[in-house]
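Exercise 7.
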Amino acid sequence: METTAKTNKVSLHTLYDAYNSDIRSLDFYKEELQYLEMRLGTIVNANTGQEVLSQAEHFQNIFLITGENIGKLKGKIQVSLQYVEDVIKTKPTHADEKTIKDYGVYGKELHELENSFSNMKLEFNKFLAKYL
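Solution. The predicted structure, written as C-alpha cells, is:
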C-alpha cells in the first residue's frame, strides 16, 4: 500500500483494493479448510482405531476454530470495506488515520491467521501421511 512520507495518507481506492484482496485470501483459506475437512472424513471412514479418532477429533476442533477465526476476520474486513466504499462516495481521495490503523490491525491478524493455517496444514499433512 502506498503512503506518502509527508502526509502519511493512503488512497481510498488502494485501501479498497487491499481489503478486497484480503477477502479473496480468506475465501481461499475457507475453501482450503473445507478440503482438509473432506480429507479428514476420508481418514476417519477408513480407520476406526482409537488413536486415529482421537487425532481426528483434535483436527476437527482446530478446523472449527480456524473456520470461526476466518469468519470473524472476514466480517471485520467487510465492515471496513463497506465504510471505505461509503467514504469514497463522499470524499474519494485519502483514508483517515483510523481507517489506516484498522487496516494495519487487520493485516496483522490476516498474517497471523496465514501462519497459523500453514502450521496447522503441515501438522495435518503429517497426520495424513501416517494413516494413508
